[in-house]
Amino acid sequence: MTTVHEPRTSPEVGGIGHSVRRKEDDRFIRGAGNYLDDLNLPGMLHMAILRSPVAHARINSIDSSAAMEIEGVLAVITGEALAAHGLAWMPTLSGDTQAVLATDKVRFQGQEVAVVIATHPYIAHDALSHIDVDYEELEAITSPQQSLATSTLIRDEKEGQTDNVAYTWEAGDQDSTDAAFAAAARVVSLDTHYPRSHPAPLETCGVVADVNSITGQATIYMTSQAPHAIRTVFALVAGLPEEKIRIVTQDIGGGFGNKVPVYPGYVVATAASLLIGKPVKWIESRTENLISTGFARDFHMHAELALDGDNRITAMRAGILSDQGAFFSDAQPTQFRAGLFHICTGSYDFPSAHVTAKGAYTNKAPGGVAYRCSFRVTEASYLIERLVDNAAHEVEMDPADFRALNFIKEDQFPYLSPTGFVYDSGNYHGAMDKAKEMIGYDGWRARQAEQNADPDATKLIGIGVASFTEVVGAGPSRQYDILGLKMFDSAELRIHPTGKAILKLGVQTQGQGHETTFAQIVAEELGIPYSDIKVMYGDTDNTPYGLGTYASRSTPVGGAATAVVSRKIRAKAQKLAAHLLEAAEEDLDWEPGKFTVKGTDQSVTIQEVAFAAYTNHPVGMEAGLEGVTYYDPPNMTYPFGTYIVVVEVDTGDGTWKVLEMVAVDDCGVRINPMIVDGQIAGGLTEGFAKANMQWITFDDDGNCIGSNFMDYLVPTAWETPRYQLGETVTPSPHHPIGAKGVGESATVGSPAAFTNAVIDALWSKGVSNIDMPVLPHRVWGALNGVEASP
Amino acid sequence: MQITVNINGASETRDVEPRRLLVDFIRSDAGLTGTHIGCDTSSCGACTVLLDGRPVKSCTVLAVQADGSEVKTVEGLAEGGELHPVQAAFKEHHGLQCGFCTPGMMLVGSALLEGNPDPTDEEVRWAISGNICRCTGYMNIVTAIQAAGGEGS
Ligand code: FES
Ligand code: FES
């Protein structure tokens, strides 16, 4: 863990570049965190949800009379009851509608049908089995291909919907792309499916809704990555006055995109509290979490690269078909129907690209959340990095050399991509060179050549490279909004008379360490020790409006707001310092924590200035030292890096294991290097998970396979590889502290590195693709020409 | 049924339904919410506590089975205000992010170190392989447990 930039502040102040230990850890290591399920309010009731056992059916009737007779059951709520209040349907974050409780039909297995409210959670769950629902089963549509071919209409209730298409979208330029392909010396193509996955944070979703029937005040405690936006959605959906809605998030046990959307459970619990006049708690079980909330990915992708005679890429074509499930509920900016998938031209310099996207409804759970990902950047990065690797193999070039030949060069930034992004900065050759050096690339290639040359070898070495470019930090208000809410973010900073501070954020941590890193930004800008700065978030009554934390936007947007508000305060502090030192403002020098009169040793500390702001401010100046900033980023940020992984594939049983992995990340300036490395190690493990084992699939009847941690395999410490981490630092030119965001890079960049490594081992055996997860039976099937079952 | 369980040195006597899970007894009856719930299939280890010194998944033990036993939860790791070496090491080595798996991880780690103060990387990984962490990628958890062992020995 080396720091490339020498910190400007002392370790006690703990500004940028210091690996200070996390402030939040003191409560977590003592078991004193405040997670949602830890909250118990007086008189609180418990809610359990009855879910559809089938994927597609008409509901003929629901009989809840037997459930109502159970002692301790207070209410059974069905879709019909909600419909009477106009609450049976709600809007999704993609502008579609989603059933809160099913009225007409169920459209996926696990869909919410009714809820029980009871005095005890065990009783609420007991009562579910006493509700009798008469389902008339319909054909289950379980793939987007089937969906587009069938005449069965999944969304027959939706006005104007005449087919199963959820959206269509395109980016780039078709004419110039077609021309480039017509002139190409060679075309390389790839078809691959990025499988359905689930973020599965260790804490599931939940809510405690507390609506006061006398005052109308609704305090809603929930696991939300975007509490302010949720408040506004609640105001619009439920017609509650927004000033009476307070969303409180407390500590969140991981989110990874799962906790961005509004889920039916939140809405029904709130409605139940309103109806009954008591607090209502709903905590999702793991099975409910996996079968009904926030899936991710599920892109069927086809792409082609055009190459000239010198192995340079001249154009790219990509077409994707996404499986949206029963409701189109991607959490993504309004203008971009397939998220930021059009970043799929990646780290490479070529003039033309054309991207088309279509989404289909199926009888599967809705979601499409950005699972540790900036809105489909993960699928995009996987596609281009798999495609360039195959291209390199086809033209018989080393995959690292093929990339280096086609990279955007350092002097080309800012770089306008063929699909319209303006990459702010980059040094792709630098990251590649560093990764190759760290892993000993040439040595591994030599060992591979030797080991794989043996015709009887059963253990083949493969070396996988991925050089990803992300686009994060949504986003500039001219292009980025969700349901009309512009994607700025905010920071409010108040310095108390004794020089201690409180910082309130519109973004929302779920374990990323905001209480520490955001305090470090203030420490850097004002010289106040990070330990003197309390960071608050996740209480909409007490923090400024913001769009929340997902898509790696906290540091790019909320971090920028924090730096800017600190600078505003410093400007006022300078006026106060001039008053205290009886000098002209422009005669003062600033170093973190102190103003000094130029050429003298006369100085005042920021703490003395803060005291004066309340005790000795000049006539005509407002008292106090505080400010608020709503930051509208001028551009996105573009983190990048190169990952190299060496695997050994066992041709006998199709298993593969990681022998060595190096990850070189460039996320611009690193605020807390220890925390950055922690984010990368976690992200790499998520990438490994998807390449190796983690996916959700369905049988032909629409039964979800992967509904618990025995079927939905997530890596334990035993399977997880060890990583070596490296860095280069290319500051973002437009971000106030040069940071770019890092929480997702490794999840975005690493899956292709793993798959490429396995394919690299098997290319000479005629294997050019295996879809993720690269399971042993698929590897074996590919080697032996046997079509593998899913 | 009436049961008495000694949790972190304090005796808890309650009437419980025979089907009540130990994790619910700890969280709801004893009010110790540092023990978490992360799954329905005994897979995640978020609910790990020490039952008579041995790590168990408290979602897979009935409260009545713990009658007369000693349970240690994360709240009982620190003694007399002094952090257990494992707790200090988790903070020092950034062994946690969201903190949801942390109590279980620390308890398994402390039990491992009782019998093996100097475990290898593999030994730690095997010991915690019943505990899922979705945030850290485990690397720093392993380092933290090993460092805590070094501290104690
Ligand atoms: S809650 Fe006990 S193992 Fe998951
Ligand atoms: S720190 Fe979040 S699950 Fe381990």
What is the helical fraction of chain A, as a range of percent? 25-40%
What is the C-alpha radius of gyration of chain B, as a whole number of Å?
15 Å
Termini separation of chain B: 43 Å
For this structure, what is the CATH class of the largest domain in chain A?
Alpha Beta
* Poorly predicted segments of chain B: none
CATH architecture of the largest domain in chain A: 2-Layer Sandwich
* Rg result of chain A: 27 Å
Q: Give me the side-by-side strand order of the main sheet of chain B.
A: 2-1-5-3-4
CATH superfamily of the largest domain in chain A: Aldehyde oxidase/xanthine dehydrogenase, molybdopterin binding domain
Describe, in plain words, how this protein is organized in 3D:
Chain A has 790 residues and is an alpha+beta fold. Helix content of chain A is 27%, strand content 25%. The two termini of chain A are 41 Å apart. Chain B has 153 residues and is an alpha+beta fold. Helix content of chain B is 33%, strand content 15%. Chain B has a five-stranded mixed β-sheet with strand order 2-1-5-3-4, sandwiched between helices. In chain B, strand 1 and strand 2 (10-15) form a beta hairpin. The longest helix of chain B has 14 residues, at 102-115. Chain B is globular. The mean pLDDT of chain B is 97. At the A-B interface, helix 1 and helix 17 of A face helix 2, helix 3, helix 4 and helix 5 of B. One FE2/S2 (inorganic) cluster binds at residues 37-39, 42-47, 57, 59 of chain B. One FE2/S2 (inorganic) cluster (FES) sits between chains B (96-102, 133-136) and A (202, 254, 511).
